[in-house]
Amino acid sequence: MANALVRKGKFQESVSYYKKAIHLKNNYAEAYSNLGIVLGEQGKLDEAMEQYQKALKINPDLFQVHNSLAILLAQRGDFLGALYHYRQAITLHPGFAQAYNNMGSALAGQGRFEEAIIHFEQAINIDPDYRDAQNNLELARSLVGKSNARARQEIR
Predict the structure, then answer these.
(1) Rounded CA gap, 110 and 130, in Å?
(2) Which among 25, 27, 1 is positioned nearest to 13, based on CA atoms?
(3) 89 and 147 in a common domain
(4) pLDDT at 93
(5) Which of 27, 39, 136, 143 is most open to solvent, judged by the fewest CB atoms within 10 Å of its CB?
(6) Above 80 in pLDDT, residue 72?
(7) What share of the chain is helix, strand, coil (3-state, %, to 5)?
(8) In this structure, what is the dihedral angle of CA atoms 63, 69, 74, 80, given to the nearest 10 degrees?
(9) How far apart are CA 83 and CA 67, in angstroms?
(10) Short-list 129, 92, 5, 146, CA closest to 69
(11) What residues contact 135, with CB distance under 8 A and at least 6 apart?
(12) Average pLDDT estimate for 38-42
């Protein structure tokens, strides 16, 4: 029911259903993860991160949850935490192009463009049509050797 509400864009209504599912089965990692997604969509980032952490405590092999948590950590400027969770996502699912692109973005956010390029290239190797990774790769290549903080923010 909660997932159907999310598909209809009824995020607030879905929250109560995810909470009921968790109440009925407190080790339901996917419910914590889905609740984190909804809370993130509502801009409740701290609460979303808390739900992702609960999901990972129950099942540390949820690669998409590692990626989602890493995105929020990077938005908060916690690049070390983000890099850890991107690495976890990649280790668990080496074919997850989005995690490579996101890790490249986090590295670029630290001015580590050469390392970022490697990750953007890997994302493109996995998914040759991945437009964001292609754009990020081109931008990172243009920024190698530069330390312009404003330019680093352009990579997504």
Answers:
(1) 23
(2) 1
(3) yes
(4) 98
(5) 27
(6) yes
(7) 75, 0, 25
(8) -70
(9) 10
(10) 92
(11) none
(12) 90
pLDDT digits (tens, 9 = 90+) for 85-103: 999 999 999 999 999 999 9
- Please give the Cα distance from 8 to 33 (Å, whole number): 18
- Domain holding 131, by residue range, is 78-156
pLDDT of 69 above 90: yes
Same domain, 137 and 93: yes
Q: Which two tokens stand for residue 97?
A: 């192009």
Token pair belonging to 27: 């080790």
Residue type, 105: S
What is the DSSP secondary structure assignment for residue 22, as one 8-state letter? H
Q: Which whole number is the average pLDDT over 105-116? A: 94
Check pLDDT > 90 for residue 58: yes
CATH number for position 55: 1.25.40.10
Is residue 109 a part of any domain in this protein? yes
